[in-house]
Amino acid sequence: MTATPFLCEVVDVDDRMVVIIHGEVDIATAPSVLQYLRPALGLPPGGLAVDVGNVTFLDSSGVHMLLTMRRAAVDQRVPFTLLSITEPTRRVLEVCGLSELFGLEPPTRS
Q: Pairing mode, if any, of strands 7-13 and 16-25?
């Protein structure tokens, strides 16, 4: 099984900058994600969203990167949202006690 190559894309969706992350977000790649996110904070205040639906792995460096960007967005009064949260990413954020901070809805149980 081959790992998903790391890639970031930035798209404008309804005046909101969306950074789409593919692959693993760890100590090696988290600084690269910040390079995409920081400039997006200076754009019109429609908001900043990070799409983590294609993230295959998230370690503490990735969590720290998300916290850093959320704090920077809040400081600049730019709405910050996580999109397409997969179950593994949700679990990492829950274990870290960050569900409420990132506005995660409780999972629906059937």
A: antiparallel
| Residue 53 backbone zone (phi > 0: left; psi -120 to 50: alpha; other: beta) | alpha
Residue in the structure block whose two tokens are 């920081």: 38
42: left (phi over 0), alpha (psi -120 to 50) or beta: alpha
Nearby residues of 12 by Cβ (< 8 Å), 6 or more positions away: 18
Alpha-carbon distance of 45 to 13, in angstroms, equals 13
pTM value is 0.86
CATH number attached to the domain at 7-95? 3.30.750.24
Arithmetic mean of pLDDT over the chain:
87
